[in-house]
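REVIEWER CHECKLIST
Item 1: Sequence provided? yes
Item 2: Single chain? yes
Item 3: Sequence as submitted:
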Amino acid sequence: MAILRSFNIGISGLKSMGQNMSIIGDNIANSQTTGFKASRGEFQDVLSLSLKGIDGGDQFGVGTKLAHIKPMFTQGDISRTDSFTDLAIHGDGFFTVKAKFGNGFTRDGSMHFNKKGELVNSDGYNVMGFPNNGGGKFINKLTPIKMSSSTIPATSTKIVTFDMNLDSRAEVQEFDIENPDETSTFANSVTVYDNVGTARLLTVYYNKQSNNQWQYHVTVDGADAQDGEAGKIYEMASGQLVFSDEGLLQEEIVDSNSFNFNLGAKPDQQIEFDFGESLAEGGNGAAAITQYGSYSQINRHSQDGYSAATLTSLSFDDDGIMSAVYNNGQVKAIAQIAIARFDNNEALYKKGKNLFKESNSSGQAVQGKPNEGGRGDILSKSLELSNVDIAHEFVSLMTSQRNFSANAKAVQTADQMLQEVLNIKR
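Item 4: Structure as written out by the authors:
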């Protein structure tokens, strides 16, 4: 009987709107959940009946059903925080955590370090990333991110580099170690480190031997020299610098190089003094010291040693690289946050706790680095807020309520019609 069918059609509408209310209610309830993605209900009509059978046409529906619940992976607003372990993804991708069910994926970047020095989320699951191999490169192997040692050992200086000019107008003179300031044309100082991390001050004296040829002498005070006398100058390295007629570095010649510091330092420390790539080495003179007709001056110098140090702070950059800063000024890259991408984000399986799990329809996670392959960048001291639009949800709430009332009215009307049929007997 068509009236009875009307009951079922109205009930299908009531059921569908009830389910839609659950979706909207879940969105509203999670409007303050970090990294939450709102969903929407998508409805379909139920198989229609036809008065003409396979000829088609003259069909009427028999109700509706909830066909899909579609998550909306639009970007949520970014909120700034005071914790450097709060991370937000700006763009596509998910953080990867090692959950009990395997790898979980989340947009919630609320993280912290546990007592083991491991980076974990609010539920204690390890955050995954790519470790540094110690040489400045990241290993393409997914491992839990862990804080490095809070101390780093001393590293002895192996190379000192100079960027400078020596005055070609200087007079030729003979260097005297007993009177270095009066018998040299120019001098500069640089601090280096021995194998136990003790800072040592070196003074380099330069004197012109002939046109286009200079000699340098690297000295230390006797207070730093093995068996030395404080206040007395000791030479520990020397060499020659040969220039072309154009004032470019033609060749470097090392005459001696052996540093013997005191206070337990390893004897015969070798320190290379790099004045740039000479013409003899295949250079063009652009990245080497020069000999021009201008005052001798040092532009910059650097060395690669440092003392032992303790960790002072950690930080993340936009590429998701976690760096450790030590009290000796050294900055070391520890690990890089991994970002997972999927072919179909909407097919990910919700596991609760702000986590998703890959499914057959989502495809497998493709791990990579931030800002690569379409992945978003990382924002430190930031969290991605829920993308729920409260105003939109309230409008949907009112619309669903009206729709529910209309379906209830259809059921009520069908009931009245059926009652009239029953009253025919009276």
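Item 5: Key structural point noted by reviewer: The chain is about 15% helix and 40% strand.
Item 6: Recommendation: ____
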